[in-house]
Amino acid sequence: MPLALLALAVVAFGIGTTEFATMGLLPQIADGVGVSVPKAGNLVSAYALGVVVGAPVLTGIGARIPHKRLLLLLSGLFVISNAASALAPNFGLLFAARFLAGLPHGALFGVGAVVASRLVAPDRAARAVSKMFLGLTVANIIGVPASTALGQQLGWRSAYWAVTAIGLVALATLALFVPHQPRGQQSGVRHELRAMGNRQVAIGLATAVVGFGGFFAVYSYLVPMLTHLTGFSDSSTTLVLALYGVGMTAGTLLAGPLTDRALRPTLYAGLVLLAAALVAFYFTVHSAVPALITIAFIGAMGSLITTPVQMLLMAKAKNAPTMAAASNHSAFNLANAGGAWLGGLVISAGWGWAAPNLVGAALAVAGLGLAFTGSLMDRDGDRSEKVTSSSPETSTTADAIAVSRRT
């Protein structure tokens, strides 16, 4: 793949590592800043809130900044915020640093997805975007377990220093390998906001929130499910989570070429199979080998729907796709919060540790319904969808990015 895509994957690797490493180090962080573990858990919420706020705000602020320069500025903020997390002397400042660290998350993914789609031939756009997303899935296999182990051995601050170092590597590779992509005269925050008003963009974001809510309803409670129902020890759950990451990587590799061929069918199939896998896990969670197979499949199907949703939003935003692409990651974090909340409700109601699987399946089916609704309401459904730049240099047919032959 082009070195520029590798640079974008490094950025995604750093984001994935910093997003999830905090979860594995909550006891150490709580001891370090003198708070309870539940209160330390608010640091995860602070990061998610930063993502939700930062994706549209920073994308809007940077609407006239050339994409490469914007990527460098956002990566610089990523480095500074993680260094601030490592240096924070108390819980209040650490909370603020984690919120700051979440701000560039969605904007980096959104701008990066647009840049990636324009680095390759039109019929390989989704594959390019999925290559960037591979960095996020590999972070779940390598980055998160490694940073967690590092934090447990050398102190929780060392994990954030490691993420800071990854950010510096990403900054250097972006500067070296990503080409300049100019913005056109029509670019600007109003231009991006008008694109966000598209009805198909709104339905796409709703699909992401509801459909991915099904994924996170289970992922949020996977560790207690494995320990209480499957019989795994606490020490072995890290390896199981790495298996989840392997499944996510496989799904991401499949998503690119399938989305380039048929965007909406890939999205439909992913949601149907995700719902089926979650129902299956409700029954297989009590046996080790079937549970592991199902976990890997859930990870794969969760990732399979990431790329088509991203490309659909970029297509429907027409020639102002950046804010729509970034807002997709705000939607993911809303899905994370909503799915975890609904999963917790059924556990608290006494339905058992396996009950979030049924909630997740219902959310996946609801997401499928929203996706079908969007298709029925799509007046452009019979035409090739293109993600075009607002720049005159890249808005020609030769540089337009074909998302699918038929959505």
UniProtKB/TrEMBL annotation:
SUPFAM superfamilies recorded: MFS general substrate transporter
Residue spans crossing the bilayer: 44-63, 70-97, 103-121, 133-152, 158-180, 201-223, 235-255, 267-285, 291-313, 334-353, 359-377
GO molecular function, one term: transmembrane transporter activity
Keyword Cell membrane on entry: yes
Region of interest (Disordered), ranges: 379-407
One GO CC term on file: plasma membrane
Composition bias, Polar residues: 387-398
Span of domain Major facilitator superfamily (MFS) profile: 2-379
Coiled-coil stretches: none
Keywords: Cell membrane, Membrane, Transmembrane, Transmembrane helix
Pfam families reported for this sequence: MFS_1 (PF07690)
The UniProt record lists the keyword Transmembrane: yes
Membrane topology note: Multi-pass membrane protein
Subcellular location: Cell membrane
The protein, known as: MFS transporter
